[in-house]
Amino acid sequence: SRSKQWYQRRVRGMFDIEVSALARSQLWPAYVTDRLHKTYYYFGAGIAATGVSMYMLRNVQVLNNLFARHPILSVIGILGAQLGIQKVQHSMPYTAENMASKHILALSLYGLIGLILSPAMAMGGPVLTRAALCTGGLAAGLTGAAVTAPSEKFLTMSGPLMMGFGAVLAASIASNFMGPTGAMGKGVYAVAIYGGVVLFSALLLYQTQQVVAVCEKTPSYQNYDPIVMSTGIYMSTINLFTRILMMMNGSRRK
Question: Could you give the CA distance from residue 172 to residue 174 in angstroms, rounded to a whole number?
Answer without folding.
Answer: 5
